[in-house]
């Protein structure tokens, strides 16, 4: 894997990639696909009105549902087209264009920490490998006391689960709970997906 952001590379190679991605999820929603699994799990973890950071929010699919459930949501994504779609489809939350490797929400005028930071949709497999630890460190730095970072991604994307857990440790995070799905199935050595609930070490 090269030391570059894979999402930006896809956009460079195919300028229509972001619009394809937006349409894909609109089509899935129109077809009745269940796109709320991640949000249901996060909602169950926090009290109503919690502050939630949707890191790598894309079109706002997860954060939009959480905001509709009564949470105070901030979403950050590198892709301005996806942020524009989030703003259009899910008004209410604060949707910001930004690089997770440089995340500094207090510097952007959002000083309060978060009750949970969710990073769904294979986001961590798209970022430049050299930035993984820094991203995890910055996510952890935006937590309130007794809060969690929740990261989910699948196998076959160039980021082994053991490597991710080592990076999390280097960023000052430890696993509180490991699952193999967003619907709370236990993690097993042969799992094809990881949902890691991380807390400061």
From TrEMBL:
UniProt entry keywords in alphabetical sequence: Methyltransferase, S-adenosyl-L-methionine, Transferase
Any Pfam family matching the protein: Methyltransf_25
A biological process term (GO) from this entry: methylation
Domain Methyltransferase, chain residue ranges per copy: 52-145
Gene Ontology molecular-function annotations: methyltransferase activity
Stored PANTHER family: METHYLTRANSFERASE, UBIQUINONE BIOSYNTHESIS O-METHYLTRANSFERASE, MITOCHONDRIAL
Protein known as: Methyltransferase family protein
Protein's organism: Krasilnikovia cinnamomea
């Amino acid at each position: 894997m090269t030391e570059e952001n894979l999402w930006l590379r896809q956009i460079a190679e195919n300028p229509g990639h972001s619009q394809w991605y937006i349409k894909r999820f609109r089509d899935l929603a129109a077809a009745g696909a269940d796109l709320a699994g991640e949000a249901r799990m996060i909602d169950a973890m926090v009290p109503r009105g919690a502050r939630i950071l949707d890191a790598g929010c894309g079109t706002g699919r997860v954060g939009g549902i959480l905001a509709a459930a009564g949470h105070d949501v901030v979403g950050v994504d590198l892709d301005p087209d996806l942020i524009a779609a989030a703003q259009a489809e899910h008004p209410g939350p604060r949707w910001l264009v930004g690089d997770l490797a440089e995340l500094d929400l207090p510097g952007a005028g959002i000083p309060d920490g978060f009750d949970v930071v969710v990073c769904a949709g294979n986001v961590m497999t798209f970022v430049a490998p050299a930035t993984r630890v820094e991203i995890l460190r910055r996510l952890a730095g935006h937590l309130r006391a007794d809060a969690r970072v929740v990261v989910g991604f699948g196998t076959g994307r160039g980021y082994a689960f053991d490597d991710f857990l080592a990076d999390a440790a280097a960023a000052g995070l430890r696993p509180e709970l490991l699952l193999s799905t967003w619907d709370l199935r236990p993690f097993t050595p042969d799992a094809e997906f990881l949902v890691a609930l991380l807390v400061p070490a």
